[in-house]
Design goal:
The complex is a heterodimer. By secondary structure, chain A is mainly α. Chain A has four helices and no strands. Chain B is an alpha/beta fold. In chain B, strands 3-2-1-4-5-6-7 form a seven-stranded parallel sheet, sandwiched between helices. Chain B is globular and about 50 Å long. The chains are: A mainly alpha, B alpha/beta.
Chain lengths: ~90, ~230
């Protein structure tokens, strides 16, 4: 879980969305909160996460699949929900 | 200019010419085809791949990402055609044409754009055909698949503009390649007669338009389609 957390926070830092000293946790919101990603920001974030997962886990996944888009509660709401979704996805992929 | 250029469908015809042309200008060129090729060029790397096979396409991009650290230009040249009356067209032919011409083009753009967005620079060239504006009889499925490529070009030009990526299309007239070898001469003559400039297209006519689209100066040109021969 920590590894996935790091992948997400590293991606956000690379996009200059958060500073390196900022404290984030699983409740940090991706859309609303102060980071407030717009739709293009979310696209860029997901691409970066996919590429990092491919490098670190050797798994080629598509995050925004039908399952992600059809969920009642968006997996992209908070860092915690995204980590949980990615964990499930990586487990399915194995 | 030295760019990293990825070209699909490079085993023969226009694709092979483009490999020769762009490597001769000092670019690094990566290409792919379904079958082995019988040529080599300096600074050219070849992959065997069915472009509608997502896994295979992803593998190519993974290797490009490691070896070349990115891509500047994608030329979606690979294409298949089938000339037949719609009432005699088998559904497997329909699927095969859409798989290669539309799905293959889409997969390559999607994966290329992921790499291009990192540099905030990219040029995508798609291939249409004069069969689209001319609504050529006997080419219903081929032309439909290419009309879809035009739609893809225009929509993706908007979706990718914020990443510094332009997406344009070229629509060649008949060029003397294997793609048109099954078309009766009479039909080809009639087709060429409908062009403003009545001759076959040459490979150089195509690279001339691609040169314009991929130029760094063309960063304000996107979502456009250029048909050769005055169609």
């Amino acid at each position: 879980m920590k590894r996935l957390n790091n992948i997400i926070t590293d991606s956000l830092k690379e996009m200059d969305i958060m500073s390196s000293s900022e404290i984030i946790d699983s409740e940090t919101e991706l859309f609303n909160g102060k980071h407030g990603l717009d739709s293009l920001g979310l696209v860029t974030l997901l691409i970066n996460i996919e590429q990092k997962i491919e490098t670190e886990y050797g798994a080629s996944i598509t995050i925004a699949d039908e399952k992600a888009m059809s969920q009642k509660n968006s997996p992209f709401k908070t860092i915690g929900s995204l980590v949980a979704f990615l964990e499930e996805k990586l487990a399915d992929d194995e | 200019m030295n760019k990293r250029i990825l070209i699909t469908g490079t085993s023969r015809g226009i694709g092979k010419y483009l490999v020769d042309y762009y490597t001769s200008l000092g670019n690094t060129v990566i290409g792919c085809s379904r079958n082995e090729i019988n040529y080599t060029f300096k600074n050219y790397e070849h992959f065997i791949c069915d472009i509608s096979d997502e896994k295979c396409v992803k593998k190519i991009f993974k290797k490009i990402s490691i070896t070349h650290k990115g891509i500047d230009v994608l030329i979606n040249n690979a294409g298949v055609s089938s000339m037949n009356h719609s009432l005699l067209t088998d559904i497997s032919t329909v699927r095969n044409i859409f798989d290669t011409n539309l799905i293959g083009s889409f997969l390559f753009i999607r994966e290329a754009a992921k790499l291009m967005q990192k540099n905030k620079f990219g040029r995508v060239i798609n291939f249409s055909t004069v069969a689209v504006p001319l609504s050529l009889e006997g080419e219903a499925i081929y032309a439909s698949s290419k009309a879809a490529v035009i739609s893809l070009t225009k929509t993706l030009s908007k979706e990718l503009s914020n990443f510094g990526i332009t997406v344009n299309a070229i629509g060649p007239t008949p060029v003397k390649t294997d793609l048109i070898k099954s078309i009766p001469q009479k039909k080809l003559d009639a087709l060429i007669n409908r062009q403003a400039i009545k001759r076959y297209g040459e490979f150089q006519d195509i690279s001339n338009v691609i040169d314009f689209f991929i130029s760094e100066k063309s960063d304000f040109i996107t979502g456009q389609e250029i048909y050769l021969g005055g169609v």
